[in-house]
């Protein structure tokens, strides 16, 4: 019990560090431009940056090295929500209980704020201090993040999302879609943390497996909560594809797989087990 | 005369190398997604990549090192055009004599293709081979490009463009706008070439001055040609701000400054002088 409270305190402190650094990054002139970007980043649970920081620090990375990467993945996640909500995409009026960015500021500014957040992610990575001993790790971490955000990751996931025929796409196509659209950046967050820590290949593989399972669990959980009690939704959704019981079972299996992957890491994985466990339905997610 | 033909042949060969590499980068599955991105990148004169390659090679950089950076600046430029043309921004139906991207493929796919091109730029940079001797140069070149595309560069320029009050913004505000919106990426293209070549600080400063003047000349020239014979346009435009004669004089002065900056470089600057000279009104731009 004390252990769990201790873990929650540590994750809360990590979240505060991410929020403070994001606030610092998102301050400037003209104030109106940064206000729209801050609005878009506000209210998130910071799951991806927490994952990156928790993996990185469990494996021995310095906070100062990995914090910019943690912010970058949150900036990328935030941009994707702003653009997904636009009328040309999902046309969502509400996000995180507030008006979506374009509802609050208009489409032009929301589009631009999304572009700004995406670019800022790579600006933040490009401004990390030069260190010849860390170049190789930094380049690999950047590559993991850029690939997850990119043409074979989130962009392709979103493309599949808007071009798939209505109805049930089938299990394989659905899993491919969510692996790219949601899973890739979650997986990359975990892997980038391990890469920056200089983890050996066996640990990297374990973190990769962990991140893959966490990413799947994250999206399936989201779909189950989105689907409500009944009837199942008609757009691509884990409940529509696997059925309600099937989706719950997939979620449990994915969390179990994530926890099993952690057993290969010879370090204290308390925070990572907590983060994975919080994805179970009966758990209050990062509450 | 032979010299000029020789220079044009070399620039034409560089352009072919850029186009071939862009075609390679923009090939994949699903074919429809890459088709939209290729459409958006098609038809450009490749001014920014040519500048990067010409600066880099004049100062001794290997083609294989700098070609990815040349492609990245063109991908960033292309994304900015796609998003600028969207109805929420300038609502332009035509680009480079063809239907704009959203007119050809719809708003959702154009928005996503723009996001894809921007992300792909950083993916391309993140996939360059690791070389401990070049890390520092590569990080600095990335930083130049990311900053130019970012919150203090193109994003702020576009923000100023959509939020400035109608009418003449005044010379200072107008110059700040075009320096960010257009000038920053052109300047960064030149500087990135020099950085990758490992140019000494004096040469970097000369290239920086050169890039700054070329960026200004580029936008003023565009505005003069856009403005047509009469009357002057009402939106922020060099002809509206400086008058027709004033804009022509600014353009000439900027090209002269660019050529003067090159005098500090102790290398063959023939291609760079040609690129700058082609911005004069009487010249056929890269024709």
What is the CATH topology classification name of chain A? Farnesyl Diphosphate Synthase
Q: State the separation between the terminal residues of chain A, measured CA to CA.
A: 16 Å
SS elements, strand count of chain A: 2
The CATH class assignment of chain A is Mainly Alpha
Largest sheet of chain A: 2 strands, antiparallel
| Reported CATH architecture of chain A | Orthogonal Bundle
Q: Could you write a compact summary of the structure shown?
A:
With 287 residues, chain A is mostly helical.
Please explain how this structure is put together.
2 copies of one chain form a homodimer. Chain A has 13 helices and 2 strands, in the order ααααββααααααααα. Chain A has a two-stranded antiparallel sheet. In chain A, helix 4 packs antiparallel against helix 6 and helix 8 runs antiparallel to helix 9. Chain A is mostly helical and 287 residues long. The longest helix of chain A is centred in the C-terminal third of the chain and has 27 residues. In chain A, strand 1 and strand 2 form a beta hairpin. The mean pLDDT of chain A is 94. Chain A has a single domain, classed as Farnesyl Diphosphate Synthase, CATH 1.10.600.10. Chains A and B meet through helix 2, helix 6, helix 7 and helix 8 of A and helix 2, helix 6, helix 7 and helix 8 of B.
């Amino acid at each position: 019990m004390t252990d769990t409270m201790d873990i929650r305190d540590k994750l809360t402190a990590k979240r505060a560090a991410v929020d403070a650094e994001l606030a610092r990054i998102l301050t400037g002139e003209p104030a109106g431009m940064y206000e729209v970007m801050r609005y878009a980043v506000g209210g998130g649970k910071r799951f991806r940056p927490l994952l990156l920081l928790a993996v990185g620090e469990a494996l021995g990375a310095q906070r100062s090295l990995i914090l910019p990467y943690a912010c970058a993945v949150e900036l990328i996640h935030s941009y994707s929500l702003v653009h997904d909500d636009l009328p040309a995409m999902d046309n969502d009026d509400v996000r995180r209980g507030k008006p979506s960015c374009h509802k609050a500021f208009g489409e032009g500014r929301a589009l631009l704020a999304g572009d700004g957040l995406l670019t800022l992610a790579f600006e933040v990575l490009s401004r990390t201090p030069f260190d010849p001993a860390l170049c190789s790790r930094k380049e690999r971490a950047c590559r993991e993040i850029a690939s997850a955000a990119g043409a074979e990751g989130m962009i392709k996931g979103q493309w599949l999302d808007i071009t798939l025929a209505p109805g049930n796409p089938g299990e394989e196509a659905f899993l491919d879609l969510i692996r790219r659209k949601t899973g890739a950046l979650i997986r990359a967050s975990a892997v980038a943390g391990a890469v920056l820590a200089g983890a050996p290949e066996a640990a990297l593989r374990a973190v990769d497996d962990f991140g893959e399972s966490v990413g799947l669990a994250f999206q399936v959980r989201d779909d189950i909560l989105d689907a409500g009690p009944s009837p199942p939704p008609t757009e691509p959704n884990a409940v529509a594809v696997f059925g309600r019981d099937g989706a719950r079972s997939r979620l449990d299996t994915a969390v179990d797989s994530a926890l099993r992957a952690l057993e290969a890491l010879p370090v204290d994985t308390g925070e990572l087990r907590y983060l994975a466990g919080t994805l179970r339905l009966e758990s209050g997610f990062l509450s």
